[in-house]
Amino acid sequence: MNVVVHQLDGVSTLPALPLAAGLLVASARRDPAIGAVASLSIHTARLDPDAVAASHHRPDVLGFSAYAWNERHSLEVARRARARRPGAFILFGGPSVPRRPDRAARFLREHPYVDALAFGEGELLFREVLHALLEGRPLDGVAGLALRAAARPEGAFLTAPRARLADFAETASPYLDGTFDDLVAAGAPPPAAIVETNRGCPFSCTFCDWGQAVQSQVRELPLARLQGELGWIARRQIPYLYIVDANYGMRRRDLDVVHDIGRLRAAVGFPRYVFFHLTKNATERHLDVVLALREAGIETHLALSAQDFEPRVLQAVRRENIRLDRALALRRICHERGIPTFNELILGLPEQTYASFADSVARAVTPFSLDTFNLYLARVLENAEMGSAEQRAHHGIETRQVPIHPARPPGVAEVEEVVVATRTLPVADWRRAFALGYLLTAAHGLRLLDVVLQVAWRAAGVPVRRFVEALLARMAEAPPASALGRIHAVLERHADAVLASEAMALPLPETGDHLWAVEDAVVVTALAAGVAFFDEVAGLVREDFRDADTALLEDAVRYQRLATPAFGSAASRRDVLAHDIPAWRLLPPAEDGPAVPLRRTRVAWRPAPALAAAGDLRAFATAYLAAVHARTPTGRLTASRG
User: In this predicted structure, what is the pLDDT of residue 215?
Assistant: First the structure.
């Protein structure tokens, strides 16, 4: 029996060892009866579908692990493979496989070349499927499948529900049994590896379908196996480690695991970066896992995800049991210890209004220089509660199927179902929220106007929301050729593209065919405009904030203009400020003050070498964005008084 399991590279994801496919193959190989007669292999490369189908030598079983970033390409490979090998058995599993009976039946009708769907954890299920095929038995006795059933009106038959794994003793690790050794033998390992230390999630957020294990008991994988996997990854010098648990730090042994990772870093120099999702009700005690990584010389960021700050929204998505009151305190602790943090916000959740979203995104701006936020559009996942017919009707959810990334031959476009309106957030309000959210992401998260925002909010008494809404209003009235007018056009064009189901990222005339996310496009447009952008912002603060200290605000704009790299200029720049903003920025962060010292200050700034050496706008903007994402300086500033 020739078995090929596909976990195709995602259209927009970092290449990593295919954990899901590896678990299937390793657990199947562990069975002596299968191991004796079956040739099991893994395919990951996102190549032309015909080339992938043709690369398999007379396959008997083709398995696919599908998610949003590879589902359509996987289906096209399966279609071409069925044409080449009509007798092959094709099985689809993974988070994108619909578990609701009507949706599963529809999936099988729409994709007649798929023979069955697999639900939930796949290690033992896949092994049982292979056994049944080898023995010529029908698959209706294998729990956890949707099968074709021509005699049934709906066209599908769902076998008995499958219980979750309670004991991992019958499964195997692809890191330890040679499966991944075979995969990387032909070349260097990919830059990232994924491990799980436990499965399950006790929370029940309606927008989530975490490995199909939401609102479920958390079960730990064997510690000895995990330690062996970490050692394998470190010895092969894979720099990026992703711990894929839903709530890392929740289990008592999690800190011990981090210490094991630190010992590997000291012994062999790897891994160099570890990412994980800290438990949602994190406390200062949970920060010990982050501190242990930092002390071992391993880079990490702390994700403290709120998604929204409005109680009614959190209740609607079943997230009200998550303690947001701890978030600001944790950010302060991290700031004091030099640990970068970020929050995640979602636009398009049930019960959001424009006003509630505007308040939430403004609250995500904190006084801590190492903190920022990421904004995402709400996606409807196939098996998440929010995607049910009841939730869609109750909340008036309106969506678009939007390409994640434009398809270029030989690729197949992947799409996500994006929320563009709800009962409480009609399309017009969604557009306003889209513009406000992504403008603030560029201004604060990508540091385009962060000093101005901080001075306005904390020293001049101008709330973040008021400032950004005033900037948006000025943009809407600005001439199309002005800097603010061009940024307004970028925001409108990206919103139009989502609403038209066209794209999530678009090119800019100034940078050729390179595709930019909306917040990046805002920054690139402002950098291209240079001094003109800051002159127009200065006009805004003079004319729209006369009730505030306009002299201080204008000084903040001058400081921001000085400290923002200018394309095509490698020379040092100098200015004289009436307010000592550099000294104020070094004071302990606080939301209400202290006042910026009224003190004549000479400021000089030189751009970082990578920015100074950039030969075109695209390279310049890419270097700038890489620096702000990595929280590294874009230049060197010096200040003197008098």
Answer: 59
Written as six digits, the tokens of 268 are 């062999």
Neighbour tally for 440: CB within 10 Å? 30
- In whole angstroms, give the CA distance from residue 578 to residue 557: 12
- Give the pLDDT score at 570: 81
pLDDT digits (tens, 9 = 90+) for 377-389: 999 999 999 999 9
Determine the pLDDT at residue 582.
Answer: 95
> What is the rounded distance in angstroms from the CA atom of residue 295 to the CA atom of residue 254?
16
Closest CA to 493 of 508, 472, 473, 475: 508
Beta bridge partner(s), residue 62: 4, 90
Other Cβ atoms closer than 10 A to 260 = 17
**Predicted pLDDT at 274:** 94
Transcribe 60-107 into DSSP letters: SEEEEE--TTTHHHHHHHHHHHHHH-TT-EEEEESTTS--SHHHHHHH
Prediction pTM value: 0.92
Closest CA to 278 of 227, 215, 323: 323
DSSP 398-466: EEEEEESS---TT----EEEEEEE-SSS-HHHHHHHHHHHHHHIIIIIT-SSHHHHHHHHHTS---HHH
For residue 500, the 8-state DSSP code is T
* DSSP tally for the chain: helices H, then strands E: 24, 22
What distances in angstroms separate CA 313 from CA 348, 356, 492, one per listed residue?
A: 10, 9, 26
| pLDDT at position 277 | 84
- Residue 506 φ then ψ, to 5°: -135, 155
SS3 annotation, 292-341: HHHHCCCECCEECCCECCCHHHHHHCCCCCCCHHHHHHHHHHHHHCCCCE
Question: Residue 445 burial by CB count (10 A; 0-12/13-18/19+): exposed, middle or buried?
Answer: buried
**343: helix, strand or coil:** strand
Give the pLDDT of residue 31. Answer: 95
Residue 252 has which token pair? 């008592």
State the pLDDT at residue 324: 63
pLDDT of residue 279: 77
Going by C-alpha positions, the residue among 536, 374, 512 that lies closest to residue 452 is: 536
Q: What is the DSSP letter of 121?
A: -
* 8 Å CB contact between 147 and 157: yes
Say which residues have a Cβ less than 8 Å from residue 133's Cβ, sequence separation at least 6: 1, 60, 61, 89, 139
Q: Does domain 302-425 have CATH number 3.30.1360?
A: no
For 223-241, letters b (16+ CB in 10 Å) and e give: eebbeebbbbbbebebebb
Query: CA-to-CA distance for 395 and 350, rounded, in angstroms?
Result: 6
Predicted pLDDT at 214? 60
Residues in a beta bridge with 574: 604
- Give mean pLDDT in consecutive 10-residue pieces for the chain, a chain of 642 residues: 95 89 97 94 93 94 95 96 96 94 93 95 96 95 90 78 90 96 83 94 84 73 96 96 90 93 96 87 76 90 81 88 69 83 92 97 91 94 93 97 76 91 98 98 96 96 97 98 98 98 93 94 96 97 96 97 90 94 90 87 93 92 93 92 82
Strand order in the sheet with 302-303: 302-303, 341-347, 371-377
DSSP, residue by residue, 238-277: --EEEEEEEEET-STTHHHHHHHHHHHHHHH----EEEEE
Q: Where are the domains of the chain?
A: 2-158, 302-425, 472-641
pLDDT at residue 282 in the model:
67
State the Cα–Cα distance between residues 378 and 243, nearest whole angstrom. Answer: 24
Q: Which fold would CATH assign to domain 2-158?
A: Rossmann fold (3.40.50)
